[in-house]
From TrEMBL:
Coiled coil: none annotated. Residues 525-719 form the Peptidase S9 prolyl oligopeptidase catalytic domain. It comes from Flagellimonas hadalis. Keywords: Glycoprotein, Signal. GO terms for biological process: proteolysis. This is S9 family peptidase.
Length: 719
């Protein structure tokens, strides 16, 4: 044996030894938090623009403190308030507009996804005095602009407390469970319009605008909760399914001085998804939608007499999105986002509602609006100008000039700006880099200093067998669709591998992005290490590629998206290293709806599917979400039924696993029960699991570990 051959053997031996040292990711590590990513604590910029606050907590001994930091040095300046014998442990906080007082949340418990109950205190920074708002748990306490009063909701009624006098007024008296709600939203508004607090102080604290929900005619929904007692109990709430009655929502004005409530006539508006005061304390902006959600109107309500005038109207042949990008400038002209030209862009309107100009434009989407620096006439935003799987931070003038890219690294960048827009903290990641947090100058994006990264996580992952995400596009049904694929570390192009596809596919969503991996991706890495190729493709109906691409699925949820996933599976199966006889797909929620349809309508393509918490008929889902895309079942019965998988159970040929939580208040277990019954009556073999009392997230204790053990075993046994 010559020296060269010996060297090759030694190198091969070293490589083999090195590979052998690489561990495989385990489910116990994933769900035990072994790969936990470090994040920046949530910060709030102080009005001076040079400092920010962070809530710091300790588990043992249990304590919390609200601390002030300096942007330039990142060093703590002072502790504003800390838990002690006199100050209870607090889990969140908010300032009054003048930053004289802090609202502290304690003993918080969830109601639904966003709503919370808690015991709240107001801390006076100057006097260090502490006032308890109520001995009973309340919702959504909010300080007046000058910090002298706090409004909140208790038992569906609106209350106002005078902090100096320590007296409380009950503003409304008709609130009651299951009928009238004042000042907070009902279930479906919370879930689909994304807000809970339905009251707002004006800028000088003299008026409170609030919404009133009359749930009387909304159908009643109940779920059995099994618990640990001798008898189960029913969890009951109002839930309007598609085509059913929604709450009657009305707008009202509370005068703080007199305590009088007046009504605002919005001409029987069907939805009121947003209210927002202008800078002028006598003017309130109100957004309304019709039931189809394709006609949005924004009104100017004059608080002195409740007169209403139309500021803006936007119509769409499909639907108009609701967001929080509306910003009033000093003179109450305003910045607005719209898909009017086919892509989501920024627009500037005068205070009279007349369009001044379109600020951004091009075949790309604005994805976040960060704010406006009036002093330097600069708008800050995030967009996908650098490719739809990437995000960058930009600044631009209100005239659409002097555009500047502030972020430098390719991947996903987001920003948190100081109050005066001198600084911003950039959060960056891509598929190969976990989150990095850096401080920058807002004027030009120049790096001031690094704050935190996840180099320790990267170093830890070096000891594991992992595979990179390979990004590309795949042409399907005339569209170039974004795709990622992960192949085994020892990938051999001359071998054949089973293909396991993941997707979500819901309207406007995105699963293919150049960002750090999520928890599901660690599971995908586990499967890849076991010899599977995992791929994900965003088909038609997903977001960030323009209005027409997103809204093509209108009135046909589950048609074009399913066609695309089936076509993707067929095309990928043509690759020489894919075993076309071993193709699987999985998804959660909308993704479960998709994977179920795929194994039925694509039964000659998919051999296996997993559906977790799936919708199986849009007739069972809530009104606001479903009708936005489908109109009502009465108007569009075929759109609902042609893509409802329990209507064609006879198409099932492959292996199918169905999983649901029995306590899911969002996608009710009714969906899976109807699917199960249809398959049983067609005598189709399949696997299923119900997790007692678990909600849409199916978590708690060892639940996720058990769930993913089940999913892993199903993949290994059937693909």
């Amino acid at each position: 044996m010559n020296k060269q051959s010996l060297l090759v053997l030694l190198l091969l031996g070293c490589l083999t030894f090195s590979a052998a040292q690489k561990k495989k990711i385990t489910l116990e590590e994933i769900w035990g938090g072994a790969f936990r990513t470090e994040y920046m604590d949530v910060l709030r910029s102080m009005d001076n623009g040079t400092q920010y606050t962070i809530l710091n907590t300790e588990r043992s001994p249990r304590s919390s403190s609200l601390d002030k930091y300096d942007y330039e040095t990142l060093q703590k300046v002072e502790t504003i308030v800390a838990s002690s014998e006199s100050v209870p442990y607090f889990s969140s906080y908010s300032f009054s507009d003048d930053e004289s007082k802090v609202l502290l949340a304690t003993e918080v418990e969830p109601i639904f996804r966003r709503s919370r109950l808690g015991i709240y205190y107001v801390y006076d920074i100057a006097t260090k005095g502490l006032v308890k708002i109520s001995d009973t748990k309340i919702q959504e306490p909010t300080l007046s602009p000058d910090g002298s009063q706090v409004a909140y909701v208790l038992d569906n009624n609106l209350y106002i407390m005078d902090l100096k006098a320590k007296t409380t007024k009950q503003a409304t008296k008709d609130g009651s469970r299951g009928t009238i709600i004042n000042g907070v939203t009902d279930w479906v508004y919370e879930e689909e319009f994304g807000f809970v607090r339905a009251f707002e102080w004006n800028s000088n604290g003299t008026k409170i605008a609030f919404l009133r929900f009359d749930e009387t005619e909304v159908p009643h929904f109940s779920m059995d909760m099994y618990g640990k007692e001798l008898y189960p109990y029913q969890h009951e709430f109002k839930y309007p399914k598609a085509g059913e009655n929604n709450s009657l929502v009305t707008l009202h004005m509370y005068d703080v001085a007199s305590g009088k409530i007046s009504n605002v006539d919005l001409d029987n508006a069907y939805y009121i998804p947003r209210i927002k005061w202008m800078n002028n304390p006598d003017h309130l902006s109100v957004q309304t939608l019709n039931r189809h959600q394709d006609d949005l109107k924004m009104f100017d309500v004059k608080a002195t007499d409740n007169s209403v005038s139309l500021l803006l109207e936007e119509k769409d042949s499909a639907y108009v999105d609701i967001d929080d990008d509306l910003t009033f400038l000093a003179d109450d002209s305003f910045i607005w986002t719209s898909e009017t030209d086919g892509y989501n862009h920024l627009y500037l309107y005068g205070k009279d509602g007349k369009l001044k100009n379109q600020i951004t434009q091009g075949p790309w989407e604005v994805t976040r609006y960060y704010g406006y620096d009036q002093k330097n006439d600069r708008i800050f935003y995030q967009s996908v100008e650098n490719g739809s799987i990437n995000r960058d931070v930009y600044s631009i003038s209100t005239k659409g000039k002097k555009k500047k890219r502030l972020s430098a690294k390719e991947g996903t960048n987001s920003a948190a700006f100081s109050a005066d827009y001198t600084y911003y903290i950039n959060t960056f990641s891509n598929a190969a880099t976990p989150y990095e947090f850096t401080l920058h100058k807002a004027s030009d994006g120049k790096l001031v200093k690094a704050i935190k990264d996840n180099s320790a996580l990267l170093a830890k992952l070096e000891g594991y067998e992992t595979s990179p995400k390979e990004f590309s596009t795949i042409n399907i049904n005339g569209n170039d669709l974004n795709m990622w694929m992960m192949k085994p570390a020892d990938f051999d192009p001359n071998k054949e591998y089973p293909l396991f596809m993941f997707q979500y596919s819901g309207p406007g969503s995105q699963s293919v992005s150049n960002s750090w991996i999520n928890t599901n991706d660690y599971w995908h890495q586990l499967l890849v290490s076991e010899g599977y190729i995992v791929a994900c493709v965003d088909g038609r109906g997903t977001g960030l590629k323009g209005r027409d691409f997103k809204k093509v699925t209108q009135k046909e949820l589950g048609k074009y998206e399913v066609e695309d996933q089936i076509a993707v599976a067929k095309k990928l199966s043509e690759l020489p290293y894919i075993d076309e006889s071993r193709t699987g797909i999985w998804g959660w929620s909308y993704g479960g709806f998709m994977s179920t349809n795929c194994i039925l309508k694509g039964n000659d393509v998919f051999e296996m599917a997993i559906a977790v918490a799936p919708v199986t008929s849009w007739r069972f889902y809530d009104s606001i979400y479903t009708e936005r895309y489908m109109q009502t079942p009465q108007e569009n019965p075929s759109g609902y039924d042609d893509n409802s998988p329990f209507n064609y159970p006879e198409l099932l040929k492959g292996k199918y696993l169905l999983v649901h939580g029995s306590g899911d208040d969002n996608v009710h277990v009714q969906n899976s029960m109807r699917m199960i019954e249809a398959l049983v009556q067609d005598n189709k073999p399949f696997d299923w699991a119900i997790y007692p009392d678990k909600n849409h997230g199916i978590s708690g204790g060892n639940t996720r570990l058990h769930l993913f053990n089940k999913l892993t075993n199903f993949v290994k046994e059937n693909l």
